[in-house]
Amino acid sequence: MLSARSLFQEILDDDRSFQLFCSIAASGEAQGGWENGRIAALVPESMRHLAPKITRHGADEDKHGRIFTALLRKRGLEPVQVPWETDYTMLLERRGIGLTHTKLRREEPLSEEDVVVYLAHSRITEQRAADQMVMLVRYFGENPEVGKAVKIISDDEDNHLAYCHEELLRLAREGHGPLIQRTLRLCALSEIQIYRQVGLAVMERMGRLLGWPAPKAAALAAGINGVYAYERVTGWRRMVSLTMPERRDALGGPATPAPVL
Description:
This protein is mainly alpha-helical. Helices cover 74% and strands 0% of the residues. It has eight helices and no strands. The longest helix has 64 residues, at 147-210. The radius of gyration is 18 Å and the shape is globular.
């Protein structure tokens, strides 16, 4: 029977598909680490109190990239080049979501509006990441090869999501509410399109590596398109809501080091 558990188990069991999966994940996390590091360095003086949390966010993302790379090397594999059509972070930037790398490479301070855009973008992408990691923990949390890694990353993603909720609610109280809501809606509607695009591209690549028959590939594509249809009609609303999290000041301390896997 085709299920998310069986699909990911199949990817996990094959060296080539596992190599591609971890390479894509490591690349995306490393990119997020660089972006957060640059944002922390360029935060305007009026928001300097956020710099330590943004730095912690970036350090966590870097750690996740190292974890995925360590999982590869534990199996005797090296990262492979990420196909452009599976590069979630790059495709989001091309769509104009978040802060551009051109802006982040400059040595000019960001504006308060830039920081609001960054946090709103992060609220959307961290929701996606947190949901994916919850699923992986459910299916593979006790797996001897990847269980420890997915639990650590899932806990960090929950912290990142809580931080975004808390800071955006604070900024809304300070008068940024209209900008926050506009940005959240724009980011959510664009992100679900990119997520579908990347999902289809990843599954197409995995299908080639694993030799999936046409009916199986078609069923998976239909599932991805079905999720998109739901999110396009109503699911996106969950991604733009803001609720004070149970985890307060979730990024208030130092980052934890990457574990030995």
